Amino acid sequence: MILDIQNVSKYYGKTRALSEFTAQLTPGVYGFLGPNGAGKSTLMNIITDNLAADSGTITFNGKDTVKMGKKFRDLIGYMPQQQGLYDFFTGRRFLWYMASLKGIRKDVAKERIDKLLEIVNLKSDANRRIGGYSGGMKQRLLIAQALLNDPDILILDEPTAGLDPKERIRIRNFISEIAAGKIVILATHVVSDIEFIAKEVMIIKNGQLIQMDTIPNLLNLIQDKVYEVYVPENELAEVQSRYKVSNVIQDRFGICARIVSGEKPEEYKCRAVTPHLEDLYIYLFD
Amino acid sequence: MKIFGYELYKIAKAKMFLGIIAVLFAFSLFVFGMQQNKITGYAEAKDIFEDLAAEYSTMDTDEAYEKLKLKYVEYDIRTMRFRAVNDGTVAWFMSMYEESYPKLYEEIMSSEEPLTFEDLENTRFAYWQLYENAKYILEYPEYIDNVQENAKTMTSVSIFAEKGSFTYNNILKTAENFEQLKDLKLSFGTDRGIVAVTDYSIGDIMLVVMVFVLCIFLFSEEQGSGMLNLIITSKSGRFPVITAKILSLITVTVVIGAAYIGAVYTYGESLYGFGDTSRYVQSMSSFQNCGTAITVKQFLIYSAITKISVLVGVGMFFSVIFVLFRGNAAMTYLSSILPMGIMWLAYTTVPPNAVFNHIKYLNPFNFLNTYGLYGKYMNISFFTLPVNVLDTLPIITAIVIVICAISSCIVFVKMRGSYRKNPFSGVREKISNIWRSGSKSTSLFLEEGFKLLVQGRVLVMLLAAAVIGAVAVMNYREPTFDVDELVYRKYMRNITGEATEDTFTYLDQQQAEFDNIPNSVAAYQAAYEAGKITDTELRERTAYLEHTIGMQQKGFEMVQQDAEYAKQNGTWFTDQITAKAWFGNTKEDITNGLKFVVSAIICLSPVFSMDYKRKARPILLSTKNGRAPLVRAKLLWSVVILLIIYISVYLPHHINLLKGYGTPEWDAPIQSVQLYENFSGKMTVLEFYVRTHILRFAIIAMLGMIFALISVKAKKQLIIILVSSVIFAVPLVLQQQGVDLRYFSFNNAFMLNSSFLSDVGVRKSIINLAAICIIGVAGAGLTFDDSETTKRRLLR
After folding, report:
1. How many other CB atoms are there within 10 angstroms of residue B363's CB atom?
2. What is the ipTM of this complex?
């Protein structure tokens, strides 16, 4: 099972949203990392054929996804960034509605809806109006609908936005569980969401894929470049202007800044630390 | 002030708003022009009239009158000399002129005519206008004297003489007001342009529509885009925002109103001219009843100010509705349109002297018709005190503006959450629960139906339409027939059917009976004289013949006319009164069309827009059946909804027809209905009836497809409602006002009965309906294309 994205470009007027994007995806979780406006949602909408690419092709197992049309859409599960829900539906009714849109048989739909409501922890609220749901509940319902047709390709745009830490972990683990045999594309700028579950991370900047690799390989890029330094309070601003600072905390020794830098900040008392994906993010995007 | 500036900026940058206003502007001016084209003579004679008016204004009115009379006669004779060549009817008038003005007549007839017929006709028309104007000016003081005289006479007549009553007070006040006008110095000038620009009801309606559009963009845009929550939670998001919006509403209304009125004035002035604007409006017969001494210039200025003030008042009323029902397009639409509709009905249907004529006169549409407001003196009763309607204008307008502005502010400031539940939400919830407990399905058609009918509130709207239909049946008043019609219908009940020899024989016998009445009366007289019957018997029998039988003669004549028609056309006897009620009531057809269109607009507006509103398009489009199958389900539901509305509108109408008139002769050929004398299609009345209904519904289904296209292009429910109202409802309103647009709009779908009266109408209808079908099919195609095309711009 291969989803092949070849030289996909997209412009909005003169603004470049995506440029010559090329990637081959096989089953597993792909973390799609990039700042706002990098082109993540644009690519997702192109993959789902909600948006036409200006150039390039996307094929699934060698077949053009646009030409596959309905057959391709039957293979995907999409959770958009916007919470496009009908407030007046109940959670359960919404899933039945989505089942009809996905062309699922009644008996299969019933079984899957019950199961998914349990997985996303909405069973007790299934008969409440969506209008009364919290943001997190709406997110979970959207994930449930994306999984309703047991898709081969699962596209999740900011799936954990608005979730509390417990829910976030729960959903993250769930995605990891169901990923077997599926291509899961998970766009986020919450790096911890993909740090533990992504097979590979695609890093996109200004519409271009600048890195695509496994997390250990990506972290190798900043090996020995992450330091923790203690700085006087009055010099913090200067440090922030000179270095890429991924974190600042105040502890009993003073202000500790986590710096990502090619050069060791000799002027301060510092120590090298193990890099995280967040450090890479700052290194690439700051 | 900054927020106010931003509100104006938002309006100025709203291309859709500017586009709609421009279209309404152009459309309204186009209709104004079309209406003026129907009035011949005035525009063509404008220049000549103005020159003559200037010339005769320098003379004493008596002298001018005498001279104008002679000039008019002269030009009338000269024009007739031309017309006499082709028109034999003028000979009589020529002979009258010859007799009354022998010298002038002789002079004209013996000389060569230097002018063309067109110039002659225009000059004659200009002289006629001036002559009538002079005659009126001379008679005006007498008219004022008569008002005073009448007041004295009427207050002395017992029924009006009750002191303290409204009638009594009104007579005195009228006399007092008109007394002041006695010494007005009147002068020549045409009234055509002044009346045309101030008595243009379609323009008034268009102005109200423009203000409604403005309110959509001022009050609904932020709701739709989700900005409202952000706004109302900011420091200056409440009172400063609503005051800025109200100020913007006033400012833009004033600008639109001034620009529109300015355009209409310019158009009217260029067509007819306003004449000397310093003359009193009482100089023109159209303003004879004007009770205020104002010049033409003042009238035009006051008229513009009045219209703009009333529009601001109407805008303020809309603002309350928009703030109150924010986020609920259907309720906003209903709550705005319904009171306006009621006001319009009251304005057009309440008799002037009705006890509750207040609703007619203290009405925005009456205030907008400034010609009627200023030109027609009218007092209404205020606890028996006569109050001039014109005097109430500033008070009522000010009260409405202030109360509505305060109400909008209070509602907006007290707003909790940007969404407001509507009164039906409880009912909807209950219906929703009932449905929820039922079995679920994965049929896209049924699920989409659930979404539309129950959650999209369409079911409530359809139920409302059905209830209105049921009320129409319950409140139906059976038609009243006069004696002749009753007699006609009595005969028709006996003879309706194929015209046979027996029928004609029967009618001949009946005719003989009528013809024999004088002989029978004479025979009774003879019998009485011979002592065979008593005086009482004579009177009874004679009365029976002359009254009971005689009274039926006229009704029978109607039957005989039908017989003549049946003989000539070799067709059936059909009750023409019933047939006319079923097929010949064009006004009712338009009204039904309007009811249908308004209901359809309200019910169909959520079909596509709810997906956009809920930002659900990306998720829908990425599913297997979320494109063409979903559009198919939506279009099918649109047709089902249209069918239900069709039944809700036409079934009560037909039940009422059955109650009032019974059925027409279904088996008769359609030509037996005299209305369809010139219709060449061979079919029975029933076939015609069924086919027109099938055709109408097929066309309506096409309208549904066009509506779908409007929906996917406009996306927002209020815009959909507005655009479709302009396309489907406004032409029907204009049709009702007498502007025949049937072949250039979608009106024909509702007027098939009258369009098929002749083969010419059939041919035009075929072209019109074919065009609608093509647009409908294209609409459906483009709607499918919108969901399938890969050129979507979901993120933009």
Report:
1. 22
2. 0.80
